[in-house]
Amino acid sequence: xxxxxxxFISYTQADKDFAEWIAWTLExxxxxxxxxxxxxxxxxNFVLAMDRASRECRQTILxxxxxxxxxxxxxxxxxxxxxxxxxGETRKLLPIRVRECHPDGLLTDLVYTxxxxxxxxxxxxxxxxxxxxxxxxxxAPSFPQNIAAPLSxxxxxxxxxxxxxxxxxxPAPAPTSKRYMVGLKVxxxxxxxxxxxxxxxxxxxxxxxxxxxxxxxxxxxxRIDKTLAFSDPxxxxxxxxxxxxxxxxxxxxxxxxTPDQAAHALGSAADDAKAxxxxxxxxxxxxxxxxATLEKD
Length: 297
Description:
Elements: E1 7-10, H1 16-28, E2 33-35, H2 36-39, H3 46-56, E3 59-64, H4 66-70, H5 72-84, E4 93-97, E5 113-114, H6 120-130, E6 180-191, E7 197-208, E8 211-222, E9 235-240, H7 246-255, H8 259-277, H9 283-291
Parallel strand pairs: 1-2, 1-3, 3-4, 4-5
Antiparallel strand pairs: 6-7, 7-8, 8-9
Helix pairs in contact: 3-5, 8-9
């Protein structure tokens, strides 16, 4: 990998667009980065390269989203930095939130920089500001103007000259937040007969304010010899299921995938997910192909 890089960009495929924008912005500002999309090229040992990246780069940027927080492989990447700096004293881990999510577990107490809802210019400024070791302003702050006026040297008559106090209004009730509950989560491990391809087809049901949402967590693994262990997934996609397929998702989650559904997941859906990962087809097309698994008998 050559000289030590400044930042290792840790992300999931679902957030590749944000990860590449972060890497480009940093390199445009004279930082060096290592990112899977650009640096783990054909012929590279993927597992060894990612291991070296997480250990040897000065800092690791976590591209935070719900997809990232749910990924076991992302967790293994930031765990190396956390083990080296559990107190955050050297800021080995720099969390950057790019989508709505709520870090938990060991990440709960790490301060993150939030890019959610920002314009491109404001997001760039926030990202670069996050790298600074201290946020002291470049010019002196203005002297505060709302200090209390000095007391008068003359006595004030009591109590006629005092204005009546304004009525105290009760505070407005806090807005009711949405409550979400995971109602069901199941993973199906599918293997081709030759043992060279594996698909993890996960179904998760979430209920929020009486609205049911199904998510497919789709991971594709491949190996050249069935005597070898599967390494990290080639593709990880998180697909929100169309509501028209909610009934099929419920049936599959409770009764298991049918042979036709398993064959489609291992075949057409896996092929399209792999093609989307290398840019041959749009990611949305792969999402449709993965959802089509539920339509099979």
